[in-house]
Amino acid sequence: MNDLPPLHRAGIHALPPGGLPSLQTAAAAAGLDVYRIELAGCADKAALLRAIAQALHFPPWFGHNWDALADCLADLSWLDTPQVVAALCNPDTLQHSAPEDYHSALEIFAEAAASLAAEGRTLSVFIPSPVQHG
User: Where are the domains of the chain?
Assistant: First the structure.
């Protein structure tokens, strides 16, 4: 069973073998929901921030900028759970059209995960394995 995703470990992780369905199965077995952040068609920062805000049910005061993303991710109190599992799905368009925005978001997720871990909460974010280019 070493193919199980690290649900209880904060940070950024590769999706497990079997992808999103495997993650959802493992999360359901642990009594957790997976917040699916759908990035198909996201080509810029604005679309990325909208997708994250929608999937994680950000409050109306979310400012749609990097600082506001960091603030919301470091809080997540409205989700009313000590453990949040999120999956970034279909990031290919964003990775090709705005790779710096994708990497900035990953950095902010990682920082928020570390901040929440210091409070005894867990943010685990799963991403597809990097695409190999020849």
Answer: 11-127
CATH architecture of the domain 11-127 equals 2-Layer Sandwich (3.30)
pTM: 0.92
Q: Among residues 78, 82, 85, which one has the least CA distance to residue 27?
A: 85
Segment holding 34, helix H or strand E: strand 34-38
Question: Per residue in 53-94, pLDDT tens?
Answer: 999 999 999 999 999 999 999 999 999 999 999 999 999 999
Alpha-carbon distance of 95 to 77, in angstroms, equals 29
Q: With cut-offs at 50, 70 and 90, classify the pLDDT of residue 134.
A: very low
Q: Considering only CA atoms, which of 42, 33, 23, 52 is closest in space to residue 90?
A: 42
**Which residue is associated with the tokens 């920062």?**
45
